[in-house]
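Researcher: Structure for this, please.
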Amino acid sequence: MRTAPLDKPDFLTLAAERLRPEPPHLEDALANPRGDHSLDDVPLIYPLSPKPAAVLVPVVMREEPALLLTERSVHLRQHSGQIAFPGGRVDPTDASILDAAFREAQEEIGLDSRFIAPLGYLDAYLSTTNYLVVPVVARISPSYTLSLNPHEVADTFEVPMSFLMDPARHELHSREWKGKLRRYYAMPYEGHYIWGVTAGIIRNLYERLYSV
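Model: Predicted structure, token format:
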């Protein structure tokens, strides 16, 4: 169990060794995807045809690294008020997953690419809303500046990586979904309820870097 503060050399070394250097291939990702179904082994109905999406997993390179998260606007039709990573659907004009993640970060929170240095990719994540989300892990300069789009993002906040990479913080909660009780990861932090896809991606980051 991780309890000590996590430092920059530790995180960067593990990221270089254990993150995917390229995004997962679509065929491989769909063969056995991680996702909201994984904890309860809910069978998937094939063929799968999810919409491609990308999120930025922004790790701020402070003395103790921290993850930058957003609180979605309450005015959004889907997932309003939830905690999320900057990201969204891959547009036809996006040249790559990386370009999509950069574009969404700029559009949602005004995070300019000059503050972002990609480190690698996590496994694709299949959401219950039929998105196949590819997370791009990146180091973020602590001198970053933001300009939030109020139509999409109500607020941003940082969470120490030592908190999120501690498996004791990965609580298993449950709620009813389409008539069945479903489990999911949740990581409550100072009044913020981190859960669902966001918590699932954080769990994947922990498994790739620290549970080996």
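Researcher: Any notable elements?
Model: The mean pLDDT is 91. The longest strand covers residues 51-60.
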